[in-house]
Each structure stands twice: as structure tokens, then as C-alpha cells.
């Protein structure tokens, strides 16, 4: 099982997401059926390296947020149109 580290974020919106990307961070969200959503900040390089592995999209991941572990799957990934950059990632509770 692959491990992804994240932090909670309190701010949201286009301008805050742009500021995150300047510092090589990636906005994300964790959501699921009848569960509260959690806004996330992820390290771009570590997620980009993990997403090149086949298991990243097929199997469950261990998402660690502030010392709490969640079993998740990748729901969707938004990519930049011509740069090798991820813009946003959605995780789904398992």
C-alpha cells in the first residue's frame, strides 16, 4: 500500500491554490458518502513521483493527515495542459 502524507488546509479558492502551487504544493480534497470533506495540502513532487506507479490508481492508498490514517482511492486528478504538473487531486474514502 502506497503512503501519501498531507496537511489540512483552512483556506480555499483560486488565489490560495495559486499561492500553494508557487511553493510546489498541491491542493486536494478527501470526501465520501455521508462523511465530512477534508481540504488538503500535498507536496507536489512526492505525489507526482507516486502517481507514475501503476498501483497509485488501481489500489487503495494510505493517506496520513496530521497523524490520522485514512484508506482512500484516487477519484480524479487535474493536470496542467502542457506542463508536467498536477493541479488538483481528489481522494475518496474507502
UniProtKB/TrEMBL annotation:
Matches recorded under SUPFAM superfamilies: Ribosomal protein L25-like
Location of the Large ribosomal subunit protein bL25 L25 domain: 5-91
Gene Ontology cellular-component annotations: ribonucleoprotein complex; ribosome
Any one GO molecular-function label of the UniProt entry: structural constituent of ribosome
Single Gene Ontology BP annotation: translation
InterPro entries: Rbsml_bL25/Gln-tRNA_synth_N, Ribosomal_bL25/Gln-tRNA_synth, Ribosomal_bL25_short, Ribosomal_L25_dom
Keywords: Ribonucleoprotein, Ribosomal protein, RNA-binding, rRNA-binding
Record bears the keyword Ribosomal protein: yes
Membrane-spanning residues: none
Homology family: Belongs to the bacterial ribosomal protein bL25 family.
Function of the protein: This is one of the proteins that binds to the 5S RNA in the ribosome where it forms part of the central protuberance.
Subunit field text: Part of the 50S ribosomal subunit; part of the 5S rRNA/L5/L18/L25 subcomplex. Contacts the 5S rRNA. Binds to the 5S rRNA independently of L5 and L18.
Protein name (Swiss-Prot/TrEMBL): Large ribosomal subunit protein bL25
Species whose genome carries this gene: Buchnera aphidicola (Lipaphis pseudobrassicae)
Amino acid at each position: 500500500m502506497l503512503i501519501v502524507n498531507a496537511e489540512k488546509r483552512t483556506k480555499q479558492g483560486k488565489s490560495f491554490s495559486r499561492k500553494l502551487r508557487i511553493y510546489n504544493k498541491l491542493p486536494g480534497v478527501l470526501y465520501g458518502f455521508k462523511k465530512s470533506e477534508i481540504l488538503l495540502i500535498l507536496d507536489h513532487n512526492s505525489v507526482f513521483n507516486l502517481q507514475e506507479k501503476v498501483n497509485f490508481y488501481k489500489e487503495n492508498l494510505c493517506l496520513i493527515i496530521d497523524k490520522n490514517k485514512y484508506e482512500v482511492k484516487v477519484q480524479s486528478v487535474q493536470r496542467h495542459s502542457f506542463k508536467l504538473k498536477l493541479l488538483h487531486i481528489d481522494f475518496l474514502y474507502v
